[in-house]
Amino acid sequence: MRPFFCPLEPAIHPSVDAMESRCVGWLDRVRLHRDERQRARLVGTNSAEFYCRFAPSGDEASLEVAAHWVYWGFAFDDARCGRGELSADPSEFLTMAGLMQRALEAPWDPVCENDRFVTALQDIGRDFHRCATPVQVRRFTDAHRTWLFGVAWQLANRAHGRMPSLGEYTAMRLGSAGGPPTLAMLEIANGEEVPAAEMDSLVVRGLTEMAILVASWDNDLQSYAKEADEANTDQNLVNVLKAAHDWDTEQAVDEAYVLRDQVMSHFLQLRECRTRRPASRALHRYLEGLGHAIRGNIDWALGAPRYDDIDGIPAQSGPRHPLVGCTDQPTTHRAGPLPIPAIAWWWGLA
Amino acid sequence: MRPFFCPLEPAIHPSVDAMESRCVGWLDRVRLHRDERQRARLVGTNSAEFYCRFAPSGDEASLEVAAHWVYWGFAFDDARCGRGELSADPSEFLTMAGLMQRALEAPWDPVCENDRFVTALQDIGRDFHRCATPVQVRRFTDAHRTWLFGVAWQLANRAHGRMPSLGEYTAMRLGSAGGPPTLAMLEIANGEEVPAAEMDSLVVRGLTEMAILVASWDNDLQSYAKEADEANTDQNLVNVLKAAHDWDTEQAVDEAYVLRDQVMSHFLQLRECRTRRPASRALHRYLEGLGHAIRGNIDWALGAPRYDDIDGIPAQSGPRHPLVGCTDQPTTHRAGPLPIPAIAWWWGLA
């Protein structure tokens, strides 16, 4: 595993421990797990920590609801999108996911009885209506549909034993990795609504997508490093490149880092550019949040220590500054648009 | 076929004829058809007329782009969602629809070569970027994804030979009938952006969904009347009710009209209520547009005459006021929330 190019400071919300215990209480109340093993696995996702890294100065109550959704998302992914019983058949997934989405959109009445995922998601949906604005809620529910649509697409490829091209994989991965709902919660956790004209501008749309893609590819590279063996045939950036170019793993991993760093560099430049222009405070915090998301995703996945000594709290273990997973040096100085039509427009933004 | 309860005036844009000829020129340029028969069928959808009824005082240039999308939507539905080669397998549909959606989101580069639907949709996407605001474009693309997700869900049911329950069917139909993108174009055609706080408020979300559902159920009732025979096993409001209650066609049709009229009555009351409260001009026009959509959808489907004598233009045929398809009398005075959890919240709005 090589370090990721990510010249951004690590950050975490100071209330992470309290948040985590409250979230475990919530988990025991909504019971997404069926047994102790599943419960341990779910608690062990450290979802509260994950989102505390995304919104290090967030409002505690809203941040906690966001953390609930992250736990929910991991449990759902595990039970219904991956190895679970519904994952082999995209049709089964679609009928279930369609109702799930509607349960979130209309969380006040039991859209579907006796499904613990529906009940818990509706609990989260009602909480969002309490702590977020109608615009933020709508953004989150739209993003949630984008994710479920992406997962269905991924399952469809799997059902046909189909390895997508790089272009298709990139378009699909912008949704399927859960990035859209995860990032839609940034402004909710921050407690500040980004004005629509800013949020829907091409530049901010592009920056949001870049953050999603970098984090998704980072997950791909991390899970490839963990699970790599010749039998790994998952839809994954490395396997996509191997299949497209008939490369061996080393060549594909090299190219994956180059592609990822090109997007990361462009993200940093464009964000800097946008930050220098007039913007609401909510947008400033949102753009900062996109950086926290990329960095936080890496640190969380590496099990990086949570604390440094800024607040006089000693590090739990390991080095005080968890830089092991990150570097300030990009793998490449290759510039210009990636040869992927679905995202080439990012390089035309200014 | 009984008349629909719809106490709203018919309306149509005065430039409908010119619009139609320009649209036929566009169709011949983008060539969604493969032969003369398909071309005639596509021209015969009268999509320009359809949208001229939705936005009778719309800006001509924007209205024309909206009409292009309606033609595109009918052609796409015909070729890829219905009887077409991709419709039997939800997986094939998903991989195609995923790329189609991305092509719309990123219309500047050829996301997929040699697909006439992609090329035409990207043409429409670029036109929207010219004539609509970034917020309106984002609303349309989100609505477009909602539609494709709904279609995939419907195909998934079909693949399993599954007749959904009324609750599932209602949730699915809110997306699958194409209502979301069609109504997202109202404010584009009107040339006025509805402020986000108004558009995303629960009341306006609810009213938008009610208009979508009434129009979708009207389509169901109209196509059932056209195609009704005992072999009709499509997912359709009438068949859903027959299957749920073990009813015969007449009982199911009766109940379908009652359900539809309950939603229609609530729509009219709530819209009246909302219109009396302070609102931007853009919202006023949007709420009017929802009414034009319900009425226009009926008139268009019945092939109602286009003109009355308001502008001194004689009616093409038939009665001057095309009231044959509509009545001011509801089928029912039954009130209160429908027993459908996915939409029961509409009756809590004020």
Automatic annotation (TrEMBL), chains A, B:
| Cofactors | Mg(2+)
Top EC class, one word: lyase
Asked whether the keyword Nucleus is assigned, the reply is: no
Could you tell me the superkingdom of the organism this chain comes from? Bacteria
Q: Does the keyword Lyase apply?
A: yes
Return the EC number. Answer: 4.2.3.-
Per UniProt, which keywords does this protein have?
Lyase, Magnesium, Metal-binding
The family assignment reads: Belongs to the terpene synthase family.
Name of the protein: Terpene synthase
User: Which species is the source of this protein?
Assistant: Amycolatopsis coloradensis
Lineage at the top is: Bacteria, Bacillati, Actinomycetota, Actinomycetes, Pseudonocardiales
